[in-house]
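Appendix B: complex inputs.
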Amino acid sequence: MLRLREIPIAFSGSPLDRADHVRSDPAALAELATPDARLLRLDGLAPVLVDEGALEWTTLADAPEGSELVFLGLDGAVACFAPVPPPTALGTPHAGPANWAAMSVLGADELAIYGSARALISWHARHRFCAMCGAPTVLAKGGWSRSCTNAACATEHFPRVDPVTIMSVENDGKLLLGRQPRFPAGRYTTLAGFVEPGETIEEAVARETFEEAGVRVRDVTYVASQPWPFPSSLMIGCHAHTDDTEIVIDATELEDARWFTRDQVAQALEAGDRGEVGEAFNAPPKHAIAHVLLRNWVEQGG
Ligand SMILES: [Zn+2]
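Resulting structure:
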């Protein structure tokens, strides 16, 4: 029997204390930034792992010359930092092979620390100039904002979090799943799309489902959310019902979309747990919230 509560949400649950009182107090932060404070080792945006499959840490004494440092939080009394890489070292904003490899070996705590560090340093590296006046910006509040250096502007900029709806859509015991051409062979997953200005979550679910699959939904409910640091999404997992059975795909977004029975979804998830491809389709990996949505739907059906 599948149990949703046994599935942790990847990238959530960081054990670090974000210590807002420290962030906003430069003197307190400077006191914690000793040469033996912890510094997360990174290769651009990618994690560096020790042989045992854990995140590698060094100390502030090893910080790259002149690099900006983000205060990740406190591990007990020890301050933890991450260096902002140069823009030339960013690579793709999407999850690459090193990220998927890290997801498969890192524990939940470490994955959460890496995820928030990546989202933050990636934002810093891409926001070195003020969007209002074009002057350079500098890291502020321990890395949880940036300030414009033009005194006449002095705009404060905050890290982005981009809301994305991702939805399991059901019709009479069948689930709507789609695939994009870039997906691995046989992979089908829940539809998803960014929330647009002026929309509720429910409206974004309805619009995206209709745009991508031509299906009108009703009764949208929230299931779970996930920070997804590639580069800065907050995935908002929902469930919805539809009375439509005909699928009309948007070929610019999807290669295919189909209905799958609860048995097919359950079998695909169980096959995925064994590292195998399901009979009807290849289920999304457990680190993606789509996997959680599929498990939730299978469980709801008893
Ligand atoms: Zn400015």
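The first strand starts at residue 38 and ends at 40.
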